[in-house]
Amino acid sequence: MDRNYFKEKKTGKKSKGSHTICCGEDKDRHILNKNKPDEWKLIEQHCEDHLISYSSVIDITPVCCKVCGRLLKYISKIDTDKERRKTIDRE
Questions:
Q1: Cα gap 21→68, rounded to integer Å
Q2: 44 and 32 in contact (C-beta within 8 Å)?
């Protein structure tokens, strides 16, 4: 018995592969999904927490698969001038 056996037993369908076709993510790994309202709230909460915790971050954007909605990565824009001003002000 292997994982595929239990997947087939649970869903009643044979596995068509271990990765999604659209974004290549592992099907067995739980990844936040923008199409699920409770998970979208978690994504938003992470973005808000990140902006609050790191004052040099100007913008944070979650990047999700356009087909299945899985979260792929976050892209942050950092204010590098703000970091430079901190060092200048200390001198």
A1: 10
A2: no
Kindly report the average pLDDT of the chain as a whole number: 83
The domain containing residue 74 runs over which residues?
19-82
- Residue 4 domain flag: no
Distances (CA, A) of 40 to 34, 46, 47, 62, 81: 5, 10, 11, 10, 32
Q: Is the Cβ–Cβ distance between 75 and 60 less than 8 Å?
A: yes
Residue type, 14: K
Q: What is the average per-residue pLDDT within 55-82? A: 91
Global pTM value:
0.69
Judge whether 25 lies within some domain. Answer: yes
